[in-house]
Amino acid sequence: MSEVKIHQWMMRGELPSVLAFYYSDAHKGLETGHGENTDVTVRSSATVEDPPTPHLSG
């Protein structure tokens, strides 16, 4: 599965049902520990994009 395909799904508001299930299940687990409607941030795991010094995103 390519990053381009995933990007296309996200931009169209589509997500394969198996991924939607796993994301939903993981978020329910977070809500159990942190409260209902817990906000999350999703970022790339591509460490090559990270600068050599600590920083805050945003």
From TrEMBL:
Report domain Pyruvate phosphate dikinase AMP/ATP-binding positions: 4-57
InterPro entries xref list: PPDK_AMP/ATP-bd
Annotated Polar residues bias: 38-47
Question: Which residue intervals make up region (Disordered)?
Answer: 30-58
Mind telling me what this protein is named? Pyruvate phosphate dikinase AMP/ATP-binding domain-containing protein
